[in-house]
Design a protein that fits this description.
The complex is a heterodimer. By secondary structure, chain A is of the alpha/beta class. In chain B, 29% of the residues lie in helices and 21% in strands. The chains are: A alpha/beta, B alpha/beta.
Chain lengths: 329, 341
């Protein structure tokens, strides 16, 4: 399988009045063609910053890419995205044509002042100026139908407030697909939805992904959802990738204490009820600087001095399972 | 765990919100809660599960007198005192709120940012006119019970994390020594690693003080973890009601089946595509309907479902369902050993 995206040693800081936030620290990962990469992490773990940096939609300042690179199609075009001007023509083309994104809140990510149809077709008219108005309409109606919106011609003219949450998310998916992207980034697309609607959207994404031959980066804080949809999983904590590997490996054989603790702390519907083992403490303040492992203070398997003072190295096993923890030195 | 003493009895509770459309046209109603009956036993945890808009929060708020009930009755009875919320006078209402408290969902908007933790937690006591010395002592007791420290008392809500704020919210509900606590999505807004802390805290407090909980949630995994009995709500009504074992292992309403099926499962990851995904979306609550409210979305429907009035039935206090076809259809629950529940 070929790589479609490679993130190398990416570090991003936010320079705020209150101090410096190390949002990402040495993040490394790859996305392969036609795969679904699930990114899991709690609030503040850096998952949204990661995808925003891929799309070049981080507001800089306050954010700054301190080091590292983002390569798109490293084997083919080898575009180094972070070196491109974010408002330049090349990056504009990458967005929508190559990479597009679905946002978390279907309520607030549409403009309330424009009809859904106008918003969906906008990207298409900008990126495919050769298309006639009728063609644009046809493509959009076709997509709306594909994502399961009944009578697309009617809904095309409607405004976001006339859509339910699930319908809005469907419209958002249609919008992300207008230019046939190669990578679809989904940032918590089902978090605001009910379970029955969530199941519908997950199934839809799965179907769309194989139909359009896309890769997908799926971000969530819900381990069960990530487990269901992903081929590979990336576990993030405090701006670092602490573990990554095949979905089955990460869930059945978690290597990092954080992943293990996370699995023990969530109530599961299909496993015996044991008392939950919460992770003690809270996520560290974003302004904290850690010389060692950021999970140190909450870790139940910590070794001592070494964890506090020394940065854990990345260890990769034969099956591609990587972990960054002193337990696996 | 709990005895069979009913502490809260709800009968045919209705809460309609009026929706005025235009000047001369007739008033429309949103039937948020449309005839809910249930009883809560002393010391038990009753789970209410449903999707957004099914009326579960409206029910919770009606039960603590935050909404004026349209019709029906809510009777609180702890042996010494019996209060009917509907025809209670001011004095009785005050006693009622002393016994029935609520924990809100959003730890960010449910605390007043302008007053510190001490004032927040002490407020119920001040309203109920406790003497000053008692207030101070009680606040520091209750703040320890929820795992916070005295030094936190002078701080303001913004300096706390989500989990800590939820603890403050819990302390505020506990301070008045209630018997019944309504937990309205009490853990939904928290990070997963913190969620477990709060669930465990609620369980510990119940074991110690024999609280009765009504635990409202949209998350089946959390409900399964904490509840003894489960009521499944759909479009303002309870469609299934029974013990946790019964409802989860052998559901008798198609909606419960779909709900269980839709929950992402960690150990059964590759079950994709085999699911019976519920199509469509919840119905418009302003439309009056005779038959089953799930008719449009149900895979087991027959024409009669649309015309036969919906009624929760089954042997008393056992496993109730509102599905008229329940004996003709075969529904799948979770396949778990009942001992493991």
């Amino acid at each position: 399988m070929q790589r479609i995206l490679e993130i190398k040693d990416l570090s991003i800081n936010f320079y705020l009045r209150e101090g410096v936030v190390h949002a990402l620290t040495d993040v490394n990962f790859e996305v392969f063609e036609n795969e679904t990469l699930g990114v899991i992490g709690e609030s503040g773990s850096g998952k949204s910053v990661t995808v925003q940096s891929i799309l070049g939609i981080l507001s800089q300042p306050p954010a700054k890419i301190v080091s590292g690179s983002i390569y798109f199609e490293p084997e083919k075009r080898n575009l180094e995205l972070n070196s491109l001007p974010t408002y330049g023509d090349i990056y504009r083309n990458v967005r929508w044509n190559d990479i597009s994104m679905i946002f978390q809140e279907p309520m607030s990510s549409f403009s309330p002042l424009h009809s859904i149809g106008d918003q969906i077709s906008e990207a298409l008219t900008l990126h495919r100026p050769e298309l006639s108005e009728a063609d644009v309409l046809n493509v959009c109606l076709g997509l709306l139908e594909k994502v399961g919106i009944p009578s697309p011609a009617i809904f095309f003219k409607r405004y976001p407030h006339e859509f339910s949450g699930g319908m809005r998310q469907r419209a958002m998916i249609a919008m992300a697909l207008v230019c046939n992207p190669k990578i679809l980034i989904a940032d918590e697309p089902t978090t605001a939805l009910d379970v029955t609607i969530e199941a519908q959207i997950l199934e839809l994404l799965e179907a769309i992904k194989s139909e359009f031959n896309m890769s997908m980066i799926y971000i969530s804080h819900d381990l069960a959802v990530i487990g269901e949809i992903s081929d590979r999983i990336l576990v993030m904590y405090f701006g670092r990738v602490v573990e990554s590997g095949l979905a089955d490996e990460v869930i059945d054989n978690p290597l990092h204490p954080y992943t293990r603790a996370l699995l023990k702390s969530i109530p599961k519907i299909d496993q015996p009820i044991e008392s939950l083992e919460p992770i003690e403490g809270t996520i560290p303040s974003p302004f904290e600087v850690h010389t060692g492992c950021p999970f140190y203070s909450r870790c139940s398997e910590r070794l001592g001095e070494i964890c506090l003072n020394q940065k854990p190295a990345n260890k990769t096993y034969n099956n591609g399972h990587t972990v960054s923890c002193h337990l696996h030195a | 765990m709990h005895d069979e003493k009913v502490i809260l009895q709800v009968n045919d509770l209705k809460k309609y919100f009026s929706l005025r459309k235009g000047f001369l046209s007739e008033t429309k109603y949103i039937r948020a809660v449309d005839g809910v009956s249930l009883e809560l036993f002393k010391g038990e945890t009753l789970g209410i599960i449903g999707e957004s808009g099914c009326g579960k929060s409206t029910l919770g708020r009606s039960l603590v007198n935050l909404y004026n009930i349209t019709s029906g009755s809510v009777v609180y009875n702890d042996g010494d005192q019996k209060i009917n919320l509907i025809n209670a006078n001011e004095r009785e209402k005050k006693d009622y709120t002393k016994s029935v408290q609520i924990i809100f969902q959003d730890p960010f908007s449910s605390l007043n940012p302008r007053i510190n933790v001490f004032e927040t937690v002490a407020e119920p006591l001040i309203i109920h006119q406790y003497p000053k010395e008692v207030i101070e002592q009680k606040v520091s007791e209750v703040i320890a019970q929820v795992g916070l420290r005295d030094e936190h008392l002078r701080r303001y809500p913004h300096s706390f994390s989500g989990g800590q704020r939820q603890r403050i919210g819990i302390a505020r509900s506990l301070i008045i020594s209630p018997k019944v606590i309504i937990c309205d999505e009490a853990v939904s807004a928290l990070d997963v690693s913190v969620q477990a802390q709060i669930i465990n805290l609620l369980k510990e407090l119940q074991a110690r003080y024999n609280y009765s909980y009504i635990f409202i949630s949209h998350d089946m995994s959390v409900i399964r973890h904490i509840c003894d009995r489960i009521a499944v709500m759909y479009a303002g009504r309870i469609v299934e009601f029974g013990t946790k074992e019964k409802v989860l292992n052998s559901p008798r309403h198609p909606y419960t089946e779909a709900l269980l099926d839709a929950v992402p499962k960690i150990s059964n990851r590759r079950s994709k595509g085999k699911r019976k995904i519920l199509s469509g979306e919840p119905p418009d609550l302003s439309r009056e309907r005779i038959g089953c409210s799930m008719f449009e979305r149900c895979g087991y429907r027959i024409d009669a479902c649309q015309t036969t009035p919906m009624k929760l039935s089954g042997s008393r206090n056992q496993h109730l369902t509102a599905c008229m076809r329940t004996n003709e259809i075969e529904l799948n629950g979770l396949i778990i050993d009942s001992k493991q529940l």
